[in-house]
Request: fold
Amino acid sequence: MKFDISIIILSAGKGTRMNSSKAKVLHEISGKPMLYYSIYEAMKLSCDIHVVLYHQANDIKKTMHKYFDKTSINYHIQDHENYPGTGGAVMGINTKYKQTLVLNGDMPLIKAEELKSLTIKNKEVINISYMTLKDASGYGRVVIKNDKVEKIVEQKDCSTKELDINKANAGVYCFQTEFLKYSLKKLNNNNAQQEYYITDLVAIAINENNTVKATKVSEQNFKGVNSKYDLSQALDIHQNNIKKNFMLQGVTMYLPQTIYIENGVQIDAETILENGVSLLGDSKIINSHIKSNSQIDNSVIKNSTIGPMARVRPNCDIQQSNIGNFVEVKNSQLNKVKAGHLSYIGDSFVDTGTNIGAGTITCNYDGINKHKTTIGKNVFIGSGCQIIAPIKIEDNCIVGAGSQITKDIKDGELVLNRAETKTIKNYFYKYFKIVSKKDKDAK
Ligand code: UD1
Ligand code: CA
Reply:
């Protein structure tokens, strides 16, 4: 259900502390850029969404277009030269509703439910969010005296005493839109970073005898990401949430702390995931057993056993099959197929009842183009074959072990091509000039 509230997401910052050429909000958590999650959750609450950009604006916009309809988000470019800072980012934006929720774009753990709890219900002009932390370093500190919010002080502007405050500004604020609009004009940049801070609006409100409310929130959902270390911690929390949800729905996991599952993966309750499994992209796993250290990327696995140590690359549809250790499958459809060991199956269609012997490779790439391999029903391919695509092997064929197949094979045929075996007796002894035991005994 959407509410009468506007949302502004701040994503114009440089992300200096990430030490990366990539825009901060494009760094990924569970397979999707951080900003994706803020927008996704915001959309559950509002149909008036504004995203503020500046650094790498085009990259960010292009990436978001992959996930969201272009028309559903209003993009703004901050006047960063003249008005840097989180306050500068909000200037000049006209929002539609009486309340405007402002959130930092570097908070990938945010949940719509908790955002909703920040909406204004009384006469306060701002409702700020804060977290009580053991160590609030890195965050702005919320100064509360006699249960009343006084101001927010940025870490770089804190006195020694203020540095000890353990109430951290969580970075989400709900404003009465009217108040936000006229108060932004009163911001200045007289601070350590010479920026226009949105956080200064708290002191401005208090000075004018307005009420500011502070709502306590959890780090679990409000953690801000400024460095790669923060990113890893946010990922940890995000992964634990994803895995917990699947386990509560019935998915079995061995040592879940070693399993990685991206946002977008679907798994049904009959599935077993062993330790070290990675499930990527929009993979769909139904009634299957994924054994240890296997990776499945953007593929469908149904009623199958995969691994241990198998790799299923994007665009595979594997049903009722058994894919064993060190088998790599890419862009292929397999139905009731066995490929137990050490194979590469790429750009292939393999039909029911077919067995792919150990070490068999579909040679799909000629250095310029990729070619397709089609293998019919009940085909037995011996070990160590090279199948040079494009190629079609019809139903009911046998390919002898160690063969190199370059021509189509017709229904019922056996094909094998191996170099003939040549035997030269006692060659070893002559070559190394050694007398064999047999010759010695004969003397
Ligand atoms: C900010 C808060 C701090 C709070 C913390 C919570 C301010 C001044 N400080 O600090 O009190 O504890 O978030 O996580 O707001 N941005 C812009 N334009 C800019 C600068 C930043 O859009 O000119 C965006 C960034 O892209 C980012 C967000 O605003 O998404 C926050 O900026 P960041 O530099 O990360 O602020 P913090 O130092 O974390
Ligand atoms: Ca931040």
Q: What stands out?
A: Residues 228-248 form the longest helix (21 residues).
